[in-house]
Amino acid sequence: MTDSANTAPAQDHVLIFDTTLRDGEQSPGATMTHDEKLEIAEMLDDMGVDIIEAGFPIASEGDFNAVKEIAERSKNSVICGLSRANFKDIDRCFEAVKHAAQPRIHTFIGTSPLHRAIPNLSKDEMAEKIHETVTHARNLCDNVQWSPMDALRTEHDYLFRVIEIAIKAGATTINIPDTVGYTIPRESADLIAKIRENVPGADEVIFATHCHNDLGMATANSLAAVEAGARQIECTINGLGERAGNTALEEVVMALKVRNDTMPYRTGIDTTKIMGLSRRVAAVSGFNVQFNKAIVGKNAFAHESGIHQDGMLKNAETFEIMRPEDVGIAGTSLPLGKHSGRAALRSKMTELGFDLADNQLNDLFVRFKELADRKKEVFDDDIIALVQVEAGQA
Ligand code: KIV
Ligand code: ZN
């Protein structure tokens, strides 16, 4: 499902806005080539991402061309470009996104005291600028997203005032960014709830949550915002993004799927495409995924200890809350190491085509433990070599 302008999604539908190609690429060193961006955009579209933020068209000729071509090739997703709060940026953004079947202009300005000090604008001057720029964007495009950057550190009365101005000027989505990853889940939820209670016209727009991960709480903060009424989550593949990154798409999508019992919301994401995208984004950005990263880390569905392996062999639900196949991974892995037990070794031997009697397995197990004490991980070839040595000695 997409969010064509002014149409509210079903109450339980959470729109997924992917900004891997914009906020993700702003991560120092993560620059992608034109062709890589097109490839990732195609994969995101195919996966069911509702809105793709394809870039920041005024930033460079290359970014403009990438956003334009992504817009031309888009199939189902809304294609969005970012622009600062000035007419030149907004015009350039529209020039790029207008080629999409469903274009969106995203314009923003920093509203917190620290951010207001940079352009040295008074509150009234900034309010006027918001009115002018959102009106201008809306005259070009009927799908306009507005963001008060650093919303979580903006005075509430001022935040409510400028959100109302943006809504009256025609914004269809209001994004609430935790730009510096400062908030905590309770605060994230409270702010969305207060905005919905206090801002006239709040019922006519979609609220988005955009969290950074500086305190490791981006996923929790995004989900808390959804529980308080936000219906768009802004996120990136592998949590790529400025500093400690953005909310990870795979985490919020799988949390909503796995904990649908307590968070009854759905997304349109085909979760079986998650792993493919994760690997591709890691490859093109050059940012490896940490082994223990939730959902997409190498160890997310791997179990080494004997107790866990035994449990997994009897019933996968013992130690896994989701199926690896649901995120595009072929299956659970039971790597052998010094913590592994007999059950896993027997299962490995069967998988490798060896039918060992109990006494043979017991002998092998002793030798395997000796080896595992010396090696971090014991591979299939190591085990085969152990069996062959054993057979040679017999
Ligand atoms: O983090 C942020 O505030 C942003 C805005 C441009 C939405 O990325
Ligand atoms: Zn951001």
Description:
The protein is α/β, with parallel strands linked by helices. It contains 15 helices and eight strands. It has an eight-stranded parallel beta barrel with strand order 1-2-3-4-5-6-7-8, surrounded by seven helices. It binds 3-methyl-2-oxobutanoic acid and zinc ion.
Which properties best describe this structure?
394 residues; alpha/beta; 15 helices; 12% strand; binds 3-methyl-2-oxobutanoic acid; binds zinc ion; transferase; acyltransferase; amino-acid biosynthesis; 2-isopropylmalate synthase activity
Q: Which percent range describes the beta-strand content?
A: 5-15%
Bound molecules: 3-methyl-2-oxobutanoic acid, zinc ion
Ends distance: 65 Å
Low-confidence stretches: 1-6
Structural class determined from secondary elements: alpha/beta
Number of strands: 8
| Individual helix count | 15
Mean pLDDT: 95
Biggest sheet overview: 8 strands, parallel, barrel
Provide the gyration radius in Å.
Answer: 25 Å
Shape: elongated
Function: Catalyzes the condensation of the acetyl group of acetyl-CoA with 3-methyl-2-oxobutanoate (2-ketoisovalerate) to form 3-carboxy-3-hydroxy-4-methylpentanoate (2-isopropylmalate).
Catalytic activity: 3-methyl-2-oxobutanoate + acetyl-CoA + H2O = (2S)-2-isopropylmalate + CoA + H(+)
GO cellular component, one term: cytosol
Protein name: 2-isopropylmalate synthase
In short:
Homodimer. The protein has 394 residues and is of the alpha/beta class. The protein is built from 15 helices and eight strands.
